[in-house]
Amino acid sequence: MFKTFMKLSGAGQRAVCAALLGCVLVVSGCGSDQANAIKIENEVVSDKLDAKNKLVVDSFIDEKRDEVQKLSRQLASYLNGHLYVDASRMREVQGMMIPNMMLNGKVLNNDHSIPDMISAESAGGSVATIFVRTGNDFVRISTSLRKNGGRVGDGDRATGSLLSHTHPAYQAALAGDTYIGTARLFESIYMTEYQPIKDRVGNVIGIQFVGKDIMSDVVLLRRRLRYA
Asked: Please, what's the b/e burial string for 59-85 (b: 16 or more CB within 10 A of its CB; e: otherwise)?
């Protein structure tokens, strides 16, 4: 693992470090109700910071990282083929005119069939998204992620939103590297992976995203540590 880390670009190494720090946030302080607590995305999973509990949480994070990496490989298999951006043909996504992401000549913009397959074939709470690059932005053009927990209707899909330039996955993608880490999406906690999509000459033209809802697992982990 260390050798793989050293092969990453500087941006990639920073993204991995940010992911590890973001996955398990340890906070401490005098006189605080949450002093010496172990947190995952601001959810306290243990109010006692010790080596045993930290080992359990680290093992939990590793397990969820493995699960989301498996999902990412599954999504990549569906996107296997000639992927390219057709800037001569624009398509409206949530009121914005966005270049078409093409897979073997098929337009992916507003076609949610591939992300929906990931969600349908995965064990509960898995989502997938395809971003297309336009200038310096990455825009969601195809997704199974619903706004505010919506379950029905394409109007509920989180399309048209941009990947924030401050998100660690943004710089990682620009550098051609993958980012893995936890995130809060619409009031739930997800383990996520952002993997750059490249054209045949190696240019980054988009991002494939997968996320696994781990909120219920975090709750169970908290109970486990509480009664350990």
From this structure: ebbeebbebbbebbebbeebbeeebbb
